[in-house]
Amino acid sequence: MAATDTTYRNTKMLHVVFAVTSIFMLVTLIGMFAEDFYRGWKVEQRIFRDVEEEMGKRQVLASSPTDKSVDELAAIEKNLQSKKDDLAAAKTAFEKGLGDLPSRKLKKELEFAGVKAEYDSVMSFINKASESREDGLNSEKVRKLRKQLDEKAAKMAELKEEVEKNQTDYDSQAREKGIPAMEAEVKKLDKQYKETLADFDRFVKLATQKRWSWMDSFRDLPIIEGFSPPTKIQQYTLNDLPIDYSFKFVTRYDRCATCHLGLEKPNFDKAALASLTDDPGLNKELSIRYAGAEGLLKKRRAEGERGLPKPEAIRPKMIDKSRLTDARVSEFAAHPRLDLFVDANSPHGAEKFGCTICHSGQGSATAFFDASHTPDNAVIQEHWKKEYGWKANHYWDMPMLPSRFVESTCVKCHHDVTDVIRDGNRIEAPKLVKGYNLVRELGCFGCHEIAGLKFGQRIGPDLRLEDDPPLDSLSNVERAKRLSDPLNPPGAQRKVGPALSRLAEKTNEDWVKAWLKSPRGFRPETRMPHFYLQANNNPEALYGTGQEKFPDAEINSVAYYLLSKSKQHLNELEQNHKDPKQLQADQVVVATIIQKIKDAEKQLTDPKLKDAEKATVQGQLKQLQTDQAVAQAKVKRRQEFLALAPPVSQFKLPAAGDANRGRMFFQEKGCMACHSHAATEKNGEPVDGKKVPAMLGDASFGPDLSRIALKIAPLGEAGSDRKWLISWLLNPSAHSPRTLMPSVQLTTEDANDIVAWLLSHKPEWKDKVVVEPAEKQTLQDLAKIYLEKVFTKSETRTVLENGITEDRLKSLALGADELELAAPLDENKLKLYVGKKAIGNMGCYACHSIPGFQNPKPIGTALNEWGKKDPDRLAFEDSEKYVKHHFNVVPLRDDPKDKNKPAKDWHSVASPDGKVLKPYEEYFADMLNHHHRSREGFLHLKLREPRSYDYNRIKSWDDRLRMPQFRFARPKKLAGESDEAFAARALQEEAEANEAVMTFILGLVAEPVPQKFVNSPTGDRLAEVKGRQVLDKFNCAGCHIVRPGSIDFKPVEMKRFEGHPNVRKEELPYTGDDYVYSEHIAWAGRDPTSYEKLTVRGVTPPVEVKFDDDEEPSKDVKVWLMQDFRYRKDLQKNGWLRDIPAGSTLFLSPDWVAVGETSDASKFTAPQLGGKFTDLLSQYLQKKDRENFGGQAKMSNAYAAAPPLLIGQGEKVQPDWLYKFLLNPHPIRPLTVLRMPKFNMSPDEAQALVNYFAAVDKTQNPGIGLTYPYVLMPQRNEGFLRQKTDEYVARLKALNQFDARKKDLQGFWEKQLIVDKADADRKLAEAEDRLNMAVAAAKPDATKQRDDAKKVADEWKERLAKKDVSAYVKQWEEREAYVADAGRMVGHGNICLTCHHAAGLDGKENKGPNLDNVADRLRHDWMQRWVTNPSRFQHYSSVMPINFKASGAPENQDAFVGSSMDQIQAARDFLLLYPQIRDWPILRARPILGLTTPPMGAK
Amino acid sequence: MRNTLICTAIACFIAVPAFAQEYGTIKGQIVWDNTKPIPPIENQKVIKEQEHCLEKGPIPKDDLLIDTKSLGVKNVMIWINDTAAGAFDKTKINPKLAAIPKEPVVIDQPRCAFVPRITMMRAGQTLEVRNSAPVAHNTRISGNPEINGTLNLTIPPKQKLVREGDKALKAEKRPLLVNCDIHGWMGGRIGVFDHPYFAVSKEDGSFEIKDVPAGKILIFLSHERGGWLQEGRSSKGLSITVPAGGVLDLGKIPFKPEYLND
Q1: Can you give the pTM of this predicted structure?
Q2: In 3-state terms, what secondary structure has residue A133?
């Protein structure tokens, strides 16, 4: 077929189609490019480029010279130039004066260089020649060349000598003219000049690099940017921290830094970013800086310096607010804690940890929604919804944590929680630690398992209840066995409530009932939660259910159960203690039975025994065995009871105490370190003519005792309340074995007085709830609920009428609750049954030890993995509506301007039907909505209204939710605060505390984080972390200052410090009064690492009570340094160093201190730990006794009377002493008004504390070489004394004091001859007596002994006759001289004895600790430092002065010869050796110095 | 041009009085409120080293000394200043008083009491605290922590503590405290000023400060037990006008018994 022009399709048509589709494709393609070009993150990156460029400029300007510094700079430069000119001139003049030396020198140098070149060339020929020949260096050619080489070498040596000589001549003459010194100076000035500009130059360079070049702009053009874009996705790849997709672990990619571009740039703080949107023309500072920079750049460019930009390039420009919005400011800002996170040098570098491991969210996402951002409150949420169409992301299990909960993820790796407390008392996750402590204090772990262990592996915080009985009460064998189980080690948490076995001697049924129904109705700040009047059992909720009377009936039953069981226990206790001899009688019974058993067994072995008789005996034996078991059980029980403290009824009641005195003791003996009492807010009645001023304590570790008299009201004889309270104060653990209340070491009289005062306040119980008595019918209804689960319906009916028959009882399990219902039944039995059931149901035993409940299972949900619970598996029920109907939903809780204040709307309102609707954050309310159900929403309501999930549900009594309602915050009304303001603040604090608990629980995810990421502190750090937990457990910080706080600040100038009276300047010789220990942190601080931020570590200075001062308190932030503060003069990196040692007060201008966020009103960046009570007590004493404690100087006495500072305790005391002291404290300091109590502490806990103090001082103060748990005291070393004595004798001889000392002692030694002769005579007489009485066989030995004794006696006789004291002199010279003189100094009436008992002598006033007891207590190096200057180690101006000054001539040479430091060390050595040498006669050889009359101890 | 004029004007303003500074005298007398009986002078409770301390009889509590005849109150500290805070304008000091006296100010502790109890001195002047007793004393001088800080040293018998040159006490707004921790009852004050205008009232309560720059000035009267005594009783002082070449007699300044209440 011939070819035709026709085609299968219409070509024209096809062209059209092709054209159209091409255009369509082109449009699509352009659309795609456009879509890609405008992808969210790319837009962000483009904006960021502008921001970065602008920030670069600002950085240049910040380092650029100002007008003033331009002048300074010019001056430096001018100086440098003139020095350079001088140098040049001097050089010229100098060379002129040298004649032909310079030309000769130059000539020879050139000549030498020429020959050297020739030498090198020959050498290279040799190398080449030897390489190319077989025989190498031995070849002919090489040999020839070598000859040449030798010639050159000889010539070179010759020339070198000449060159060197010329140089030496030149140099020595130059030195004469001072040329090298001038050169050095020019070099130094040049360096200084360059350094001044170093930052500026560096930032200029940086800013130039950051500029958006034309090439960048080209690469960023649409389409072209598809090939090599300047915008890029930034990601961290984390293979070691995969994401758990339930079935598979997948590598974690975090792309957050794609948009959060300023994350790692420290200068990108929010304020700096926000300021970019301000008009730079209006910023005066910036204009000045720019003028300076402009001038500098112009000048330098004009001078021909290369690489400098035009000044216009760094002219600041404004970025429009529509581009750099507030949201972008947050987006581009640096991480607020680069020292902790993100930065490669921080402990959590982003390369290693990424972002989502802490923040959660979808890291691989590059869009706002996909990343699963979470707003922090309802206002932001609303804003996000509008701006970005935000909605909850259901497709991601772990959405990003809002900042309010971000600390919860710390728990993943910080299992101990307290290990987030670093560097003193810097709590890096304060909300988390608060939550942890609340969980610990409120005892959540009693019902909810928080086990940090899974198959013996740590998976989270371990808060398990301790064993019952606790380890402490086990025998050693039992304890060892229990501790040897690695998979299930014993828990460490005590039950948080008191033991109830002795309840009946403490209070009465009426009180117990009212308490059970509404604990806060009695004591508003109690930790006991509310079980009744809750959302699911208040009258409104129960209306019409038939269960209306159940709550009161149950309360009646529980009270009855507790009291009757307790009475039983007490009766038995009383019986046993009344007649303790009964135990022996019972033991005799057991022994008799055992004997009978033995007899019977013997009988059975008799072969003559007939079968019938055998059977009888066997029957008897069986009976005997049963009897034995019963009798033995009886003995055991008796023994147990006798081991317990006797009942209060046996306590002998003293006559009524003095309430006024009791009030004084309550304030002085330390009660207010843990408790408070409303009556202390007003002044008390005077005691012994001294005032008893008010004390405004706010301690809440123990209960508020204002209403204690209403509670301590047992039924029975009059005075039984006093009996109980006195015996409780004297020994709390007798009543509640695991109580944290220590024995305060009171005398019975003091306790009696305190009790008199406590019981004298019987305030009206205004809001006491009414508990109706239980009706029999209600009790039966309640019992029926439980009985029907055990018995059939008909059986239940019979039981409820008649009780359980004896036969049926036997069929019940051992310990079954139904055993209480034995026939015949009465109402009390019903109460016991219902009460026991209720206690079991509510889990009262989780916090209290209750008779009849031993080791029952926790009743709540385990919390180990709650933090990752799927919200779909949470029963939200009708909670949304509950919140709507019962709360006032408010958009914000905190005032956006001041987070410490509640928001404007945050208060309760009245509902139309008159109910009080408390505020509820909309943020959390929204999370109950079915579009946005989340863990946080569920948990928040659960903690707030635990029973609200029963709302609108029909439930039987025992099926209702049981979790009680806690109150987490315990706010106190501030002086001058209105009721309304207080109510709002209280609700805000409660919500915050609730969140803190949530933060902790949300962190319990039990996520398998690889071991290398888990923070496993070891060594000193572990000791610190563990010790802190014990410290908190016993509230040590209630009385003591334990750790200093710290303040970070940015100083503007150092003038204020330069004039400080204690400042030590590096360039000046030190002329202070104390020695400087450069290894110790009190004298030598850490070198400043930055001049942007300095840190001081200290405590608030002592508070002086002002009596007649109208001066306005200054706004300065004051700190009493506990560590040396080191800084550099001029703020420069290489300025002179300055030290202001510990014990000085520093004043910081308040505007310097605004660095970072401050957590405290006093502007401490990290608050100190403890010290409230110290201040409270010392202020009280200042007011009480102005004469002895008032005023700037005397208030030291008040502080000396308060509990001692524990900062530095580790370097101060010997660990074994502290261990013994903690377990068994004894009085040490006579000045204190109170005593260290004896805590209910286990040996392990004491050891943890000892290690804590030592570890802390070791890490804070590495230079002192502290060791623990063992200390080596050099004074105990063999040979120490001899060496010191040798040194001392040598010194005496060198200073010509030796003979005088010897002469001084001659008289003593002569007297000593008489003493020793008499002693030898006495021994001889004894030997004679023994010889006379000896039997024949012993005669030879006795004769020998007599002869020896005679020899000795004769020797002494001869010595006495000759007055030969040489033996004494030898002994003195070899081992006595040092301590003898040291002892004379310690026992000097004008030194130690002015205030201390020392060297066996009473002081003139024993107000300091007894120094004879320090050998076992104090560490030797601490003693030396302390004596040097006690104020370096105190938190107030020490009462003890500097006795041995570092400056000036040493004093007291009549006692001990040597420098002040020699004297300090000698005194220290003497005290440490004292127990060994106390009986040496030499110590009493000479009259005591500095005493006009001998003290009491001298004989 | 205008600026220069203003500047010159201000300069003249400052300069003129400096040239023509004239001086006057302030005097007065502090007297006990005579409607109330004079509180009896008790003795210190000496709890240690009685043999030495009580050698010459009991030590009176000398923190409030009232003359029975004239009712004058001794040991009131009087000083002036030109502002309630801040340093004294040195140009105002009468040139004949400008030099800081060379001779040291001496405090001794002969029998467990500071003699004199009240010391007033110039900043930079040498201070000698002597111990002529046979027993040790520790001398604690407590000042503003930022200016003089606290000094606490033992002075052995027959020794002395000297603060001179760089270590000399600096001026403070208020007198410093001096006390002894070994003998708790010992106490006193040291006023250190950057000008020579101070006085301590004599037995009869009278005082006189000469050569005070004429014009408006603040005066401060302070007593250890009575606190501020000048009118207004405030730390801000009392504004007075010193007549040029004349005498400003403040008359009888009452010391009221209620001032003693804590």
Answers
A1: 0.88
A2: coil
A1025 residue type, one letter: V
| pLDDT for the residue numbered B17 | 45
Considering only CB atoms, A1110 lies closest to which of B49, B167, B234, namely B234
Question: Is A1324 within 8 Å of A1346 (Cβ atoms)?
Answer: yes
A1440 touches chain B (CB under 8 A): yes
- Quick check: A1452 contacting B, CB < 8 Å? yes
- Predicted pLDDT of residue A550: 96
Q: Is the dihedral of CA A244, A250, A251, A256 positive or negative?
A: negative
* A204, A60 contact by CB (below 8 A): yes
Q: Which of A1395, A1438, A1492 lies nearest to residue B51, judging by beta carbons?
A: A1492
State the pLDDT at residue A1158: 47
Would you give the distance in Å from CA A694 to the centre of its chain? 32
DSSP classification of residue A773: P
Nearest-CA distance B181 → chain A (Å): 6
Residue B132 dihedral angles phi and psi, to the nearest 5°: -90, 0
Give the model confidence (pLDDT) of A923-976 as tens digits. Answer: 999 999 988 899 999 999 999 999 999 999 999 999 999 999 999 998 888 888
ipTM for the predicted complex: 0.91
On the CB side of A52, how many CA atoms lie within 13 Å of its CA?
Answer: 20
Q: Which of A584, A45, A569, A563 is nearest to A332 (CA)?
A: A45
CB contact under 8 A, A1493 and B179: no
Tokens 């039981």 correspond to A799
Q: What single-letter amino acid sits at A1311?
A: K
Query: What is the number of other CB atoms lying within 10 angstroms of the CB of residue A484?
Result: 8
Whole-angstrom Cα distance, residue A889 to residue A883?
8
Q: If 0-12 CB within 10 Å is exposed, 13-18 middle and 19+ buried, where does residue A1221 land? A: middle
Q: Are B259 and B37 a contacting pair, CB within 8 Å?
A: no
Tell me how far apart the alpha carbons of residues A324 and A319 are, in angstroms, rounded to a whole number: 7
Q: Of A647, A524, A1361, which is closest to residue A967 (Cα–Cα)?
A: A524
Distance CA A1210, CA A1023 (A): 12
| Interchain pair B138, A1145: CB under 8 A | no
Q: State both tokens at A1170.
A: 């403890």
State what percent of residues in chain A have pLDDT above 70.
98
> What is the spatial distance between Cα A1364 and Cα A1307, in angstroms, rounded to a whole number?
12
Alpha helices, H only, B174-220: none
Q: Are A1381 and A1456 in contact (CB under 8 A)?
A: yes
Q: Report the pLDDT averaged over residues A1397-1404.
A: 91
- Tell me the residue type at A1371: Q
Instruction: Give dist(CA A404, CA A30) in Å, integer.
Output: 44
Residue A1192 at interface with chain B, using a CB cutoff of 8 Å: yes
Residue owning tokens 């605004």:
A1154
- The CA-CA-CA angle for residues A905, A911, A914, to 5°, reads 130
Partner B contacted by A1209 (CB < 8 A): no
**Residues facing residue B118 across a β-bridge:** B189
To the nearest whole Å, the CA of A1061 is away from the closest chain B CA by 5
Beta strands A684-687; A887-890: pairing state? unpaired
Determine if residue A1386 is left, alpha or beta; phi over 0 gives left, psi from -120 to 50 gives alpha, anything else beta: alpha
* Gap from A220 CA to chain B (nearest CA, Å): 55
Q: Over the stretch A980-1013, which tens digit does the pLDDT of each residue have?
A: 999 999 999 999 999 999 999 999 998 778 888 8
With a CB cutoff of 8 Å and minimum separation 6, the contacts of A767 are: A518, A521
Residues B213, B21 contacting (CB under 8 angstroms) = yes
SS (H, E, C) A1353-1384: HHHHHHHHHHCCCHHHHHHHHHHHHHHHHHHH
Q: Residue A210 is encoded by which pair of tokens? A: 């950051």
Least CB-CB distance to B154: which of A1060, A1197, A1441?
A1441
Structure tokens at A1309: 């030694």
